[in-house]
Amino acid sequence: MDFAVVATDISHEILGVARERINRAGFGDRVSFLACDATRLPFGTGEFDFVTCSLAFHHLDPGQARLALREMARVACHGFIVNDIYRSRGAWYMAVLLSTLTTSNRLTRHDGPASVLRAYTPAEMRRLSESAGVKVTVYRHPFWRMAAVAKL
């Protein structure tokens, strides 16, 4: 199977970490990297078969989230998937527990629970997509994960 991937992030540092890991996994020749803003993607309309946003959507405020949904719909030919955590009391308690048990790093202990508090609920994701003019189906998965799937 022939495929190519363009990995994007707003952070050059995060892309450096991704490049290192992807090269170590043996896929460096199939992946290119570009620092860019998800609300203003530097790609042409329909340039990609599929687009995915994985575990980053909760970092976007509602205005940015609507723009990112529109941009993903614009650059994808067939569809896109937003894979993220969703906000709930159980997810917050689990994030506090796991970050307390698994690390002594203050930043990590703060970031896990803070990410849950910033995350969208499935209902909020549906409303965001409606207000962006992009139809998605939202699926809930175990351990407070959701996928917003758009078939274009």
Provide a descriptive summary of the structure in words.
The chain is an alpha/beta fold and 152 residues long. The protein has a domain at 37-81 and 120-151: Vaccinia Virus protein VP39 (Rossmann fold). It has helices at residues 12-24, 62-75, 89-102, 106-118, 122-132, and strands spanning 5-9, 31-35, 48-54, 76-85, 137-141, 145-151. The strands form 2 sheets. It has a 4-stranded mixed sheet. The longest helix has 14 residues, at 62-75. The mean pLDDT is 97.
Task: Spell out the blueprint of helices and strands.
Blueprint: E1 5-9, H1 12-24, E2 31-35, E3 48-54, H2 62-75, E4 76-85, H3 89-102, H4 106-118, H5 122-132, E5 137-141, E6 145-151
- CATH superfamily membership of the domain at 37-81 and 120-151: Vaccinia Virus protein VP39
Assess the beta-strand content as a share of residues. 25-35%
Number of strands: 6
Structural class: alpha/beta
Tell me the strand order in the biggest sheet.
3-4-6-5
Please state the second-level CATH architecture of the domain at 37-81 and 120-151.
3-Layer(aba) Sandwich
What order do the helices and strands follow? EHEEHEHHHEE
What is the averaged pLDDT score?
97
Helical run tally = 5
- Low-pLDDT sequence parts: none
Annotation keywords:
four-stranded mixed β-sheet, alpha/beta, Rossmann fold, 152 residues
Short description:
The protein is of the alpha/beta class and 152 residues long.
